[in-house]
């Protein structure tokens, strides 16, 4: 996971990632984030929202999914889209 983040963030001269919300309960949670960045070579600013679906067992992560659309992550977890 750390390696994939490094590769993804190499393209940005500067970036900011903010946690907006944690939804769900029990062993399935959704973390919703906002990303803003400035391209290293182009100077173009980029941004958007994304989400992770976390599944835990005995306090450890057993599944981790990435969603470019937070509503899709909420749907995958069986939560309602209206939370957004």
Q: Beta-sheet strand percentage?
A: over 45%
Side by side, the strands of the main sheet go 1-2-3-4
Largest sheet: 4 strands, antiparallel
- Which word captures the global form? elongated
Low-confidence stretches: none
Radius of gyration: 14 Å
What is the straight-line distance between the termini?
Answer: 26 Å
Helical coverage, percent range: 10-25%
How many E strands? 4
Whole-number mean pLDDT: 90
Total number of helices: 2
Structural class: alpha+beta
What keywords describe this structure?
84 residues, alpha+beta, 18% helix
Provide structural commentary.
The protein is of the alpha+beta class and 84 residues long. Helix content is 18%, strand content 56%. The protein is built from two helices and four strands; from the N terminus they run H-E-E-E-E-H. The chain has a four-stranded antiparallel beta sheet, with helices on one face.
Quick summary:
With 84 residues, the protein is α+β, with helices and mostly antiparallel strands.
Chain-wise SSE layout:
Elements: H1 2-9, E1 12-25, E2 28-39, E3 45-57, E4 60-67, H2 70-76
Antiparallel strand pairs: 1-2, 2-3, 3-4
